[in-house]
Amino acid sequence: QELKVKSNSFTSDQNSGISVFSGDVNILKGQDELNASKVTIYVNKEKKPTKFVADGNVSFNITSKDGAVYKGVSGRAIYLPNTKEYYFYENVHLQQLNDKKEIMGDEVVLKTTDGKAYAKGMKKEPVIMIFNIDEEKK
Amino acid sequence: MLVVLASIYIFFKPLNIKQQAFVDVPLFEIKDFTMYELDPTGLHTIMLGSTATRYSNRYTVKDIDYTDNKNKEYIANMQANNGIYKNDIVTLTGNVTYTRDDGLTFKTQKAVYNKKTSDVVSNVGYVAYMNDSVLRGSYIKYNNEKNRIFSKNVRAKIQLQER
């Protein structure tokens, strides 16, 4: 699949296999979108991307395989293209738009293949989950 | 006699002929050439062209095809409509193509290559092809020795290998 990236600047060190997009970074992948201040891409020997690390004002829109749409913000996000998993860190606020669920925590894992999200809170703060339950009509 | 001498002084004016200073004159011109530059370590530059004019301090080359053989790991080749090869700087203009034998290629309309530092710089917009990814930007600085790229105002298309 093709990834479209826009940024103010780009550096790449082909010896270490690390490329960095910085400054208003915008990434589009199919319907998914991610914005951040900086995105670091790690490539393997075949020069294929194996990991994306987004840092600073991360905001995202993600559609999972089963069509669930997730939207949210965090301080940091890691995407593993081989397993299609997202790892969000630092003040994560994740909303699942279809079912109106929300998760706030310090570490959230989103597996887009099975559409599941796992959350972990800070030591003193719990994970907050909000479910909007439609009340039965009287 | 005095009158004659005096009249020369009065009637004759010095002609104002502009002194032509031949400063930048072509020394020779060669056509359809291949130039090899060697040093004790071996062959480090190959330059071909349809026409080259040699001046005291530079070559101007048409249809330049310049190969820097110095880098042990990757050979860099540059082609352009025109090139100026002066000291250790190659200035390329018109349909510039920079190719490295590991597959990196970039195209622009103007680039300056510094043989000493192995930096090639373009600030007039470029398109680069790396493997099956495409990178566009307004400025690029690429170092063939350190394998490093820096670019500004970037638009990239990267192919993902997703299972």
TrEMBL record, chain B:
Gene Ontology CC entries for this record: plasma membrane
Superkingdom classification of source: Bacteria
Pfam families to which the protein is assigned, alphabetical: LptC (PF06835)
InterPro entries from the UniProt entry: LipoPS_assembly_LptC-rel (IPR010664), LptC (IPR026265)
GO molecular function annotations of the record: lipopolysaccharide transmembrane transporter activity
Bilayer-crossing regions: none
Name of the molecule in the record: LPS export ABC transporter periplasmic protein LptC
Organism: Sulfurimonas paralvinellae
Organism placement in taxonomy: Bacteria, Pseudomonadati, Campylobacterota, Epsilonproteobacteria, Campylobacterales
